[in-house]
């Protein structure tokens, strides 16, 4: 099965099982809770940062990141879910969501 087919199958399964924006919102809330817990734990080191690099991933929702993680893991010969993307190992992570009222 080609990589593009795997993503299409994943999207089809999500659509058939009824997981939609509410499931993504739940994932967002869980990720936000993890980030908040990490922030409460305090900094990993006692040193002050000299340089900060800010990565802004526009359009990278929780479901997109999960699909990317699984695809990369499968390309490495794993099941995919245990894989971590490079930016998920950063010391500081954050998630934000903007809702535009219509």
- Indicate the proportion of strand residues: under 5%
Order of helices and strands: HHH
Radius of gyration: 16 Å
Mean pLDDT: 74
Alpha carbon gap, first and last residue: 41 Å
Can you tell me the number of structural domains?
Answer: 1
Instruction: Name the overall outline.
Output: globular
Tally of DSSP helical segments:
3
Q: Specify the biggest β-sheet.
A: none
Helix percent band: 40-55%
Structural class: mainly alpha
Tell me about this structure:
The chain is mainly α and 102 residues long. It has one domain. It has helices spanning 3-17, 21-40, 62-75. The model is unreliable at 4-17 (pLDDT under 50).
Give the gist of this structure.
The protein is an all-alpha fold and about 100 residues long.
Throw out a few tags for this protein.
3 helices; mainly alpha; 102 residues; single chain; 48% helix; globular
Topology:
Layout lengths: L2 H15 L3 H20 L21 H14 L27
């Amino acid at each position: 099965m080609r990589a593009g087919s795997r993503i299409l199958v994943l999207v089809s399964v999500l659509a058939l099982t009824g997981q939609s924006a509410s499931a993504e919102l739940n994932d967002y809330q869980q990720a936000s809770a993890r980030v908040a817990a990490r922030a409460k734990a305090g900094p990993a080191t006692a040193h002050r940062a000299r340089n900060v690099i800010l990565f802004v991933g526009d359009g990278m929702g929780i479901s997109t990141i999960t699909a990317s993680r699984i695809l990369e893991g499968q390309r490495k010969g794993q099941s995919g879910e245990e894989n971590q993307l490079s930016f998920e190992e950063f010391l500081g992570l954050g998630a934000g969501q903007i809702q535009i009222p219509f």
